């Protein structure tokens, strides 16, 4: 074994570390009067593990945890709250602001290049999204709760898109998709426990009849697991800054249900704003293509 070459600062770092170790009696002695010895040492190590997690968890796992919590759990909760508290069609169209957020995050985190044409079209998309959120031009400051939930959902799903791209760089499709769902379940279990609903009445309420059970299965398979596999496969072949724009297909399909099936229409100014938003986002995607060459 070859001895490492000594640097001038090395011994001083050893001395500093040793000196800091010497301060532990100042913490332990007062704690002995309040806690059992094994309890002190347990919490000492538990806190050190929390501090050390960023150092020992691979970056890919960190991206996966964020993607599972933000996209699979928190984002889904916010989206469901948005549908429950606002115009369902507006909620789905507002989500088109998500690609602007994911592109900005991809630039900040992955240094993805941003085309010059991004900025004016992104600004137009934001303005259109703001107009879309207004229910009535007579009272422009009256924005329903569902829109705010939708904007928060767009943020978390946009960040999840970027995180998912980080995962797919180093992890297989099946493993990434499976772990994301598992992490999402763990996150939702924590949420239920925090709200005091981790019990039979909270998980299996009387309203959970045959029709509701059928709906849950359809939600988790046709609209959940299957598209997740397809989506992650797409992320393997797509840059994070580009992927978000193609997620607009979710909005187009959703509007067919919310407006055509559930009868939540848009006002005339919201229709115009929605069209402008779609065009602006499409133009941003077109501008971003130049950065791939």
**Model regions low in confidence, pLDDT < 50 over at least 5 residues:** none
Classify the secondary structure makeup into a structural class. Answer: mainly alpha
Count of separate DSSP helical elements: 14
Q: Mind telling me the C-alpha Rg?
A: 25 Å
Strand content: under 5%
The largest sheet is: none
Our count of domains comes out at 1
Helix content: over 70%
| C-alpha geometry | globular
The H/E string reads HHHHHHHHHHHHHH
- Chain-averaged pLDDT: 82
Measured between the Cα atoms of the first and last residue, the distance is 49 Å
The number of E-state strands comes to: 0
Task: Note down, in words, how this protein is organized.
The chain is mostly helical and 293 residues long. It has one domain. It contains 14 helices and no strands. It has helices at residues 10-21, 24-32, 37-56, 59-85, 88-94, 98-110, 118-132, 145-168, 173-194, 200-203, 210-236, 240-246, 248-258, 268-289. Helix 7 (118-132) packs antiparallel against helix 14. The longest helix has 27 residues, at 59-85. The relative contact order is 0.14. The model has no long low-confidence stretch (mean pLDDT 82).
